[in-house]
Design a protein that fits this description.
It is built from six helices and no strands. The protein is mainly alpha-helical. The chain is elongated, with a radius of gyration of 19 Å.
Length: 127
C-alpha cells in the first residue's frame, strides 16, 4: 500500500484550521504522521500541489461567508449598543460579551492568516 496523498493533504489542510491535535484526532492519525507529512510537503511536489488545491477549496467554501457574517454581527452589535439602556447591567454585560467574541474572531482571523501564509508563502507574499 503506497502513500495516501489525498488523506495526507486533507489532514494537513484540516490542521491549518483546527490545529494539529484536533486534526490528528479527527482523522485518526498520529501527530507524528502529521509532522512527517508536513515535512514531506516541503519536498514532494505532488503532495504540495494537492495540498494547495485542497486548501484553496476549503478557503473558497468559507472565506466568502466570513466577511458578511462579521459585518452583520458588527452592525447588530452597533444597533444593540445604541438601543440598550446603559444603566441596565444585563445590557452592559451582553454588549461586553459580544465585543469580547468579536475580538476573539479578529484574533482567530489573524492566526488563520498567519497559518495560511506559512503554508503557502509564495501566494500570500503577493497579497
Amino acid at each position: 500500500m503506497g502513500f495516501n496523498y489525498e488523506r495526507a493533504a486533507a489532514v494537513l489542510v484540516d490542521a491549518l484550521y483546527r490545529g494539529d491535535v484536533e486534526a490528528a484526532q479527527r482523522h485518526g492519525v498520529t501527530r507524528r504522521s502529521l509532522y512527517n507529512w508536513r515535512y514531506r510537503l516541503a519536498t514532494d511536489q505532488r503532495l504540495a500541489q494537492l495540498f494547495d488545491e485542497k486548501r484553496r477549496q476549503a478557503e473558497a467554501e468559507w472565506v466568502p461567508q466570513f466577511v458578511p457574517a462579521i459585518r452583520d454581527a458588527v452592525e447588530f452589535l452597533r444597533r444593540a449598543a445604541q438601543e440598550l439602556d446603559p444603566t441596565d447591567p444585563d445590557a452592559v454585560h451582553a454588549v461586553a460579551g459580544a465585543l469580547k467574541i468579536l475580538s476573539e474572531i479578529a484574533m482567530m482571523k489573524e492566526v488563520l492568516d498567519a497559518r495560511l501564509a506559512l503554508a503557502s508563502p509564495e501566494i500570500y507574499a503577493a497579497n
